Amino acid sequence: LPHFIEHYSKYVDELQFIIYESKASPRILSRAKPIIEKYDNCEIVKVVRDREFDWEKVTILYNMIKSKKQNDWWVIADIDEFHLYPNNDLRGLIEKCDENLWSIVRGGFIDRVGPNGEFPNINNEEDIFKTFPMAGFFRYPMSGACPNKIAICRGDIKITNGQHYAEINGQTTWRWQGWGHPLIAPPEQYSIQVHHFKWDETCVTRIKSVADLNEAYSYSKEYYKMYDQLKKNDFTINTKIKEYMFLKCEKSNFNEYKKWNNLIKKIISI
After folding, report:
1. Which residues make beta-bridge pairs with 21?
2. Cα(93)–Cα(97) distance, integer angstroms
């Protein structure tokens, strides 16, 4: 959470948090509130207590909150998702969107792991990009998880489950001419890297818990497939596999991941 706040404070005017408590995370509010209250630009806008690992409910909450300011631009990010923007300039990107009447900017996942493909411990003393120096793309090849993300959009845009796509006039954007919808900034030129810090030392336990839940709303089958694949490799990621496109990237700089142009072309074809 401190890493998340420090990262996005460089780019946005304010951070609005939804606290989602469940049996799997029963004390999130008591742990997060003292941290969030230290920052003037942060606010807890809603606290929810619901069933565990309900990713569909998370999307409903995102849509509900941002719809309250439909003309504003919103950055949408789970707590483990850190965006990097072209030229490290979010405001310039939004100005370009306003000029061209675009309402959506797409992005895609870059998976982050430890220096030897391990799942490291997060600490507050070290830059999180240095704690997870290896940047690549293993989750989709490993389990088929959708890598597309709606990263920023105006408040009147409805996003779909997992924040992977948008729904415009009742139609999901991936069905629209290969994502060529006129409200979407051309992704070949304007795309956002979503660096995914999901893969810390607790992730194996969490993946197993979601798999064991065996519920469609949690995408449990996908998580079971991932757990099975990780188990075969002693719960580490082989960063030398060419398909995973790993590079060492220790800076929070859009241009450091040199394979992005090739990766985003792959992502938008999925």
Report:
1. 49
2. 6
What backbone phi and psi angles, to 5 degrees, belong to 250?
-105, 5
41 within 8 A of 69, measured Cβ to Cβ: no
Query: For the CA atoms of 165, 18, 219, 8, what is the dihedral angle to 10 degrees?
Result: 60
Whether 235 contacts 204, CB under 8 Å:
yes
Confidence of residue 170 (pLDDT cuts 50, 70, 90): confident
Residue 122, SS3?
Answer: coil
Mean pLDDT of 190-215: 97
Q: Which phi and psi (to 5°) does residue 183 adopt?
A: -85, -5
* Torsion 109-112-113-119 (CA) sign: negative
Identify the pLDDT of residue 159. Answer: 95
What six digits make up the tokens of 48? 């929810």
pLDDT tens for 42-54 read 999 999 999 999 9
Separation between Cα atoms, residue 52 and residue 59, nearest integer Å: 14
Please list the residues that pair with 194 across neighbouring strands.
Answer: 83, 109
Residue that is written with structure tokens 């003393």 in the block: 125
Distance in angstroms (rounded) separating the CA atoms of residues 104 and 151: 8
d(CA 167, CA 165): 7
